[in-house]
Amino acid sequence: MRRLGISIYPEKSSENKIKNYLKEMATIGCSRIFSCLLSAEESKDKIIEKYKAINEYAQSLGYEVIVDVSPKVFDKLNIGYDDLAFFNEINADGLRLDVGFTGAEEALMTYNEYGLKIEINMSNNTHTIDTIMDYRPNKYKLYGCHNFYPHQKTGLSLEYFKKCTQRFNKYNLKTVAFVTSQADKTFGPWPVTDSLPTLEIHRNLPLHVQIKHFLALDTIDDIIISNCYPTGDEISQIRGLDLNLVTFNVRTVENLPETEREILFEMLHWNRGDINENLIRSTQSRVKYKQHTFDLFNVPDTIHRGDIIIESSEYGHYAGELQIAKQEMKNSGKSNVVGHVEENEIFILDYIKPWQKFKFKEG
């Protein structure tokens, strides 16, 4: 099941602030936490005291807590890969290895006595995960998690991201990537913060649009907000968001007929398998409403990319078919434009695959 998650940084926020954030985000369905030990400067005892209370509270709200570490952190805190008692002591559910070992160690760690998940850095297109799999890990305790990138122009390209992710998808491992709040004065673990996305193309996009793009790509299981703290508006945009499919925000035309409104907002849509470069076609509405007469009511000369079309009865057996334009085209004179996809979501149309499901929300 796909999950939405958040990040917390106990070194930079008070315990009360973090607990209030955890409580609020749990109400919108967040159930996964990324926490970071890479920048922790306190003593081992102080870290245990601080993290234990927060993690215990998070778990009481239904969160799974993964903490980010590296061999350097292992050395500093005198932790061995064969003894992970420290992570159990701070009430973590697992640990993310920002930098790993040789493969054999990671595999052994998945059999730890505490049942901790072991999360591997996904943002390197190397054979690391193949080597770990060669050592026969407990794959049910093995996750993959991408990096986030605070500096402008340093995030992953989409093609590189796909190549890295495929290495983990082929083993059916749980995968994780980050999206970023656009709120002012947000922060992560490091001093530089020009937003904190995994993908560079997400850096300046609205938070909910980044999430929808990952849903369209359909290669990532858990999507985590990387920085603290998102605004109330951002939270309201993702409240109730269906994580199983893409829901496009749309602006409808005035005086939209009731049947066309039902097709838009009450039906589950999917792209036909025999795809084309011009239109996304959802055809079940023409079957369901085959007895209905679809009159012409809004027939502009030009159909623009992002326009949503419901064919009129002038088109014969195509009457009632819903389409989304992927590029500009001349209207035949038979096609009603019923709405338009939100401008900053239009690029997601290019990632809707054959048979992929989607919905609409008026916004």
Automatic annotation (TrEMBL):
Residues 4-238 form the 6-phospho-N-acetylmuramidase N-terminal domain. It comes from the Bacteria. Pfam families: MupG_C (PF05913), MupG_N (PF19200). Residues 246-361 form the 6-phospho-N-acetylmuramidase C-terminal domain. This is MupG family TIM beta-alpha barrel fold protein.
